[in-house]
Amino acid sequence: MARRLELGIAAGLAALGLAAGCASSQQMLDQQQATAVQTALARGRFDLNCPNATAVVLSRDFIQPAVQGPWVSGLERLEYTVGIEGCGQRTTIVAICQQGSSTCFAANPSIQR
Question: Please, are residues 46 and 91 in contact by the beta-carbon 8 Å criterion?
Answer without folding.
Answer: no
